[in-house]
DNA sequence: CTTAGGG
DNA sequence: CCCTAAG
């Protein structure tokens, strides 16, 4: 058996650009600016739309190493093996919007006089939804790892940190994962803003220098913008919403909610989602006491060396989405927050995120640097407001610096290619985003739960300390613990270690509202902002806590093992934690197996799959009788279709003929028996 | 737990 | 290959 050392990457969140991206080279932060009329658009809608817009985009991971643009396997491998350098995982939009592909929107962002762009509603339905937008993106946020680990050098950490989030440019390189949005998407999504007033462009132009790289997204909200409409339970984004399984909510702007503007081929059951309001209520009921949900996306390589995420999608119904968006439809269950166990299933969604407070001007009073936020689903997004950004007497302008997605964890072999790594990251990211998102709003340290309140009623006004205003992205699956952007009462999660001979050691965080984690990690979590680590540890021994690593929040090490053993991990985790649901690795039946199956069925008949299993596949542990039944089903189907329609490893026609014969015989036999039984009765 | 059937 | 109803 070949043992293969694996690298385990723990991404504690990708950085998602606040708005559309421009060129990769400029790496500017997008600014996003909209105007909302009074009472026409609730705040949640605006945020939801923005978040959804961003997350709808197709992401394509781009790996870069070190600070240079050098790419390549050898370089990367070297980096990984040294395990003391950093890498950057940049997710970009598949090159579809490269430098040659400026949208009208982005192409004007450098012109201060033309920073606004109006996009009339494409549909000539009388609506005149127009939004203003300013883009000036800078997605590269760097951090000096040496400053994060209590002075320890980065090399001492013996791992690769990933995605530290600081907003100060000019630091040494650090690995980070980013999601770059496609500018054109912004334009598309702006169409969703119907019934919105047209605001004079000149009114908006003066807020910020579009060339300023640090300028985040801007949202212009009316003071009286209501927070209510979001209560209708519409998620702002849901990548996993295939046309079929997810209800397309009938709503004026439902097209925005993913993609299914075209009728689905198959109507499926309508499964309404819990409204955000309900979830918030539930959340408050368990305020600060629930276990922080944390999940990982584990990716194991199959025997063919191709890396597969935990889940694979089967259908792609996403508007403008490409095949890389492998969001399994069934996974939506795991995102459903109605069940705690389910919510733990796929995404280890309890990320702890350390909000780097490098921009002190935006800090809430009394908040300490390195304040910690505890998430159960998605990284809170930073929403900084600037009173200087006011425009008009009754509008509140918010600045969202970036959206972030929850922690991700992937695992790949050392020998994996960069392409494999990209695919892995891609799958992981898309999977994590697949559950859809909700927006949470907190103000002055308190979660705003009444969606029907206006901003004024909530106390959000121009003269407020706007920094006390925070937004969070929440998974649909999340139990939705409240997350506070004001760090007055951060609840520090605890740690919980699970180790087994096979399953990786996992440190789970548990939100208890108090400090009960290991002191060492407490210090770390409070004092550092490193978002995630890449830990390459071939032995579970390294998973122990006292390794002097102070910057990690999650340890997830996988011992060397063979492929088949590796596939057992989720099973063990599932049985142990009752949370991890891992799809088994696909193992196509060989011709020999098919023949064996046919022989057994010919002998035993259909419908005795357990006997077939015992008779013919006793030693094939990975073939359950359900598998055999399924295989027979597919064999029959295969035999009935034309050879041109068949896919996969071809099965000899002779075997297929036997399948048909046996199936026909036993079907008839069974029906005879049934008929005889029925006639007897 | 097995089986059957839809996804 | 997953999920679930049904027995």
From TrEMBL:
GO CC annotation: nucleus
PROSITE patterns the record matches: HTH_MYB (PS51294), MYB_LIKE (PS50090)
Top-level taxon of origin: Eukaryota
Compartment(s) where it occurs, according to its Swiss-Prot or TrEMBL record: Nucleus
Pfam families, per database record: Myb_DNA-binding, Ubiquitin_TPR1
Domain Myb-like: 581-636
SMART domains recorded: SANT
Residues covered by the HTH myb-type domain: 582-640
Keyword Zinc attributed: no
Keywords linked to the UniProt accession: DNA-binding, Nucleus
CDD domains in the record: SANT_TRF (cd11660)
Molecular function as annotated in GO: telomeric DNA binding
Coiled coil feature spans: none
Membrane-spanning residues: none
Identification of the protein by name: Uncharacterized protein
Organism from which the protein derives: Lupinus angustifolius (Narrow-leaved blue lupine)
């Amino acid at each position: 058996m070949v043992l293969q050392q694996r690298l385990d990457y723990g991404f504690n969140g990708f950085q998602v650009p606040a708005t559309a991206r421009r060129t990769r080279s400029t790496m500017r932060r997008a600014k996003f600016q909209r105007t909302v009329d009074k009472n026409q658009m609730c705040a949640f809608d605006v945020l939801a739309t923005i978040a959804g817009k961003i997350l709808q985009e197709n992401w394509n991971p781009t790996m870069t190493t070190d600070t240079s643009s050098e790419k390549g396997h050898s370089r990367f491998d070297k980096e990984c093996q040294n395990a003391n350098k950093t890498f950057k995982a940049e997710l970009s939009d598949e090159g579809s919007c490269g430098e040659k592909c400026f949208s009208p929107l982005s192409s004007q962002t450098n012109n201060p006089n033309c920073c606004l762009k109006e996009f009339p509603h494409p549909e000539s339905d009388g609506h005149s939804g127009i939004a203003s937008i300013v883009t000036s993106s800078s997605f590269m946020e760097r951090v000096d790892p040496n400053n994060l680990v209590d002075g320890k050098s980065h090399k001492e950490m013996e791992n690769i940190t990933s995605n530290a989030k600081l907003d100060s440019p000019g630091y040494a390189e650090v690995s980070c994962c980013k999601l770059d949005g496609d500018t054109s998407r912004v334009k598309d999504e702006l169409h969703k803003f119907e019934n919105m007033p047209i605001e004079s462009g000149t009114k908006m132009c003066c807020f910020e220098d579009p060339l300023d790289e640090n300028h985040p997204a801007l949202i212009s909200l009316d003071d009286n913008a209501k927070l209510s409409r979001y209560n209708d339970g519409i998620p702002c984004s849901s990548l996993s919403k295939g046309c079929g399984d997810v209800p397309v909510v009938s709503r004026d702007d439902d097209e925005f909610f993913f993609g299914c503007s075209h009728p689905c081929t198959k109507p499926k059951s309508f499964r309404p989602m819990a409204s955000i309001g309900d979830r918030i209520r539930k959340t408050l009921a368990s305020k600060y006491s629930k276990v922080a949900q944390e999940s990982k996306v584990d990716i194991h390589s199959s025997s063919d060396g191709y890396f597969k995420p935990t889940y694979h999608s089967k259908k792609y119904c996403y508007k403008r989405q490409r095949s890389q968006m492998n969001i399994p439809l069934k996974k939506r269950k795991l995102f459903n927050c109605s069940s705690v166990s389910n919510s733990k299933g796929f995404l280890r969604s309890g990320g702890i995120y350390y909000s780097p407070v490098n921009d002190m001007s935006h800090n809430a009073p009394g908040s300490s640097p390195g304040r910690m936020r505890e998430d159960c689903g998605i990284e809170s997004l930073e929403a900084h407001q600037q009173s200087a950004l006011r425009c008009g007497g009754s509008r509140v302008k918010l600045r969202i610096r970036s959206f972030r997605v929850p922690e991700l964890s992937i695992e790949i072999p050392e020998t994996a290619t960069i392409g494999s790594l990209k695919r892995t990251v891609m799958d992981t990211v898309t999977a994590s985003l697949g559950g859809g998102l909700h927006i949470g709003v907190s103000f002055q340290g308190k979660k705003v739960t009444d969606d029907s309140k206006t901003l004024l009623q909530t106390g959000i006004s121009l003269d407020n300390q706007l920094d006390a205003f925070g937004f969070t992205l929440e998974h649909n699956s999340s139990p939705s613990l409240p997350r506070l952007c004001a760090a007055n009462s951060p609840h520090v999660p605890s740690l919980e270690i699970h180790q087994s001979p096979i399953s990786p050691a996992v440190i789970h965080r548990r939100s208890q509202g108090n400090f009960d984690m290991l002191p060492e990690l407490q210090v770390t979590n409070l004092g550092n902002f490193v978002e995630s680590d890449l830990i390459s540890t071939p032995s579970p021994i390294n998973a122990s806590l006292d390794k002097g690593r102070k910057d990690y929040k999650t340890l997830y090490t996988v011992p060397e093992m063979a492929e088949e053993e590796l596939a057992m991990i989720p099973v063990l985790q599932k049985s142990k934690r009752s949370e991890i649901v891992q799809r088994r690795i696909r193992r196509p039946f060989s011709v020999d197996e098919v023949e064996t199956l046919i022989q057994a069925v010919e002998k035993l008949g259909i419908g005795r799959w357990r006997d077939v299993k015992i008779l013919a596949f006793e030693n094939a542990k990975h073939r359950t009788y359900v598998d055999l039944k399924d295989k027979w089903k597919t064999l029959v189907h295969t035999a009935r279709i034309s050879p041109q329609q068949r896919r996969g490893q071809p099965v000899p026609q002779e075997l297929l003929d036997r399948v048909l014969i046996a199936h026909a015989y036993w079907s008839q036999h069974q029906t005879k028996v049934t008929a005889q039984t029925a006639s007897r009765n």
